[in-house]
Amino acid sequence: MSSTEARQAAEAFLTEHGITTVRIAGTDIDGLLRGKRIPVDYFLESVWDKGSNIADILFGWDVADEPMTNLTFTGWHTAYPDVTLLPDLSTLRLAPWDPNAATVLCDIVRLDGSPLELSPRTLLKNVVSQARAAGYEPAAAYEFEFYVFKQSPEELAASSWRDAEPLTSGNRTYSIYRGTSTEYLIGEIRESLRECGIFIEASNSEHGPGQFEVNIHYSDAVSAADQAVILKHAVKEIAVKHGHTATFMAKVRSEWAGSSGHLHQSLSNLDGTAAFANPSDSGSLSSVGLNYIAGLVEMAPAFMALYCPTVNSYKRIEGGSWAGSSATWGRDNRTVACRAIPATGHAARVENRIAGADANPYLVVAANVAAGLHGVVNGLTPPAAMTGNAYEATDGSAVLLPTSLQAATAALRASETARKLLGDAFVDHFALTRDWETRQFGRAVTDWETARYMEMI
Predict the structure, then answer these.
(1) pLDDT at residue number 397
(2) Mean pLDDT in residue range 375-397
(3) Quick one: DSSP state of residue 391?
(4) 162 in Cβ contact with 282 (< 8 Å)
(5) Which residues does the UniProt record annotate as the domain GS beta-grasp (predicted)?
(6) Residue 370 CA: distances (Å) to CA of 31, 125, 213, 298
(7) Do 127-446 and 3-116 have the same topology in CATH?
(8) Does 310 score more than 80 pLDDT?
(9) First vs last Cα of the chain: how many Å apart?
C-alpha cells in the first residue's frame, strides 16, 4: 500500500467511526505508553506522516517521572532535545473505552528520521529482521495476570496504597461462579479489545483475590507486543472507568500469588510451514525447536533484567510460585523456565514462564526471539529436560537465575552475547536505568523496616 493509499484508508476509518481525537504513543523503557492526543483534522493534515516531536526525556525518566541523573544518552547535560513519534498506520485502531478516540502506535525516531536504537519497538523490529534474514518468521502470544482493586487510584493514593481491597475475596481459580460477579468489568475488557482488533481467547479468575488472567491470540512478534501493550493500558483505563484500580505489578502482597506475563512463541519457515513441529514424533519439538529452547535457557540469566525489570519483580520468582526461577526446560512442565509444548503444525511452541506482568512487552519479545534465534543459528543443544518439580531439584540441574535486580543487571551488563544480540547502546542504557531503580529502592524506608525496628531498637 502506498503512503497515499494508507492515508486515504486512515481517513476513511476515522470518518466511519466518528473519531475526533487520535492518541499517538510509543513506550518508554518501562513499557508505559507516552504520547499525545491529536485532533483528527490535524492528524490527517500533518501528523500521520510527519509525526510529532517529543522530548527525549521519554528515555530519561523513571516510572515515577523522576529524571534519571546517571544516564549518558540524555539528561540535563544534553538539555533533553526532541525525538519524533512517527505513527505506524498499520496499528491504527479504535479505543472503545475512550469515546470518539482512536489509538495509533508510533516508532520513536531521531529528528532526521533515522531509527533510535533505544526505542523498545525498534529493538524488536530489528530482532525480527534478523530472524527473517535467518529464514524464519517469529510468532508470539501473551498471557497476562493482573489484580483489580475496588478503590480508584486517587482513593488508594490517599491511603498511601495500604488499604487496597481486592475486587473479589479468597482464591477461586477458574471459578465460573465467581467470574459472573466480575463480568461487568472483565467482559467489557474482552469486548473492548475485540472492537480494537485484539482477540482474547479466554479469561478467568486466577489464584489471588481479585486476580485475573487473559490470553491473547497469537500473531507475528511485533503485533503480539503491540497488542500486549495496548491490552495493559486498556485494562487500567477500563478499570478506572468503573472506579477501580488495575495493576500489573509482579507481587502485590507477599502472601498472594504473583502476576506473570508468560510468552508463548514459535518460528515459521518463510514458506509458512511450522518450524517447531516434529512430523516424526508429535511428542517432541523439532530440532529447530530444541535449538531455540537451548538459546532461551542459555540466555535466561543475562536477560533476567528484561524479564523482571523492577525490584518488586524478584519477590514473584521465589520457588513454588508458578514462575520460572531456574535456567531449565521441560515438556509441559510448569515449574521450569521454558515449557516445551509439542503439537502438530503451528500449535507446537515454547512458553517462557520467567517474565512478570510488569515487564515491557517489546523488550520481553525481543529478548526471547533474540535468545531463541541465537540457539538456532548456532545449533545449540539444550540441557537435559527437567522432569518433576524444578523448584525442589537438588542435583544441580536447576541453575537458579539472578534473585535481585542488582544481580540481574550485572549479568546483562557482563554478557557479550547479550551485547551482540541487542547492541551495546541498548544494553548500556537499560543497565543504567536498572542501576537507578535499584538505587531508588535502596534509599527508601519501607513499612517492613519501620514495623520491625522502630519500637525495639
Answers:
(1) 72
(2) 88
(3) G
(4) no
(5) 17-113
(6) 19, 11, 27, 12
(7) no
(8) yes
(9) 70
Helix pair 361-377, 287-299: axis angle to 10 deg: 120
More confident residue, 454 or 73: 73
Domain boundaries, the chain: 3-116, 127-446
Question: What are the cell numbers at 298?
Answer: 542459555
d(CA 25, CA 23): 6
- pTM of the complete model: 0.96
Q: Which residues contact 1 (CB under 8 A, 6 or more apart)?
A: 9
User: Residue range 393-399: average pLDDT?
Assistant: 75
**Residue of 235, 196, 200, 2 lying closest to 105 (CA atoms):** 196
Question: Which CATH number among 3.30.460.20, 3.30.590.10, 3.30.70.2190, 3.40.50.11540 corresponds to the domain 127-446?
Answer: 3.30.590.10
The residues, any chain, with a CB within 8 Å of residue 84's CB and separated by 6 or more, are 51, 52, 53, 54, 108, 109, 110, 111, 113
Question: What is the CATH code of the structural domain delimited by 3-116?
Answer: 3.10.20.70
Q: Is the pLDDT score of 304 beyond 90?
A: yes
Q: What is the pLDDT of residues 327-336, one digit of tens each?
A: 899 999 898 9
